[in-house]
Amino acid sequence: FRESALRGYPPSQIAYALSLLQGVGVARDPREGFKFMEMAAKSGNPEAQNNLAACYFNGIGVAQDYPMALNWYRRAASAGYPDAQNNLADCYFNGYGVPKNQSEAVKWYRRAAFQGNVSAQSNLGYCYLNGIGTGKNASDAIKWLEKAAAAGDAQALGNLGACYFNGLGVERNTERGLTLIRMAAKAGNEEAQKALQRISRL
Length: 202
Prior knowledge:
mainly alpha
């Protein structure tokens, strides 16, 4: 990949950058990986822009810089890249590099969710369920949680399980609710694990 990366071919730059960042097939060199990712990002490649933003966000190969991460997430998100749309929404939701703006977060979660981004579907369902950044809408919450849960998202499984267990937006079905909560717990959802402990004490 290195030769074609040096010739300026963005897919090779991305592949070589990821190899350097992760130490796959080559010695791990985050700074060099960042450099090649930046080349691809500056050529306008949205996947590279999203990856470069993640480098800034996590301080990999470069000093951590939330505003720069936001800048690159926004570029990739505006180009329609769903992972970046979800990541940009997370920044707005939590106030990373920008003042918290949950309605703006929901806008970007929605765009990513419609493109099939599972994390965004889970996050959008959570927002509809709790009325965060949008009005409460149990039926929309269930629709998006079902989609994300079907893809195995641990947070969606837990939230959907709680909906069935408590009859929120769906007819109450404690057996289905427990099944989903157990699946979420097995997938590493700590809230679901705690919920199971509480249920077992009832």
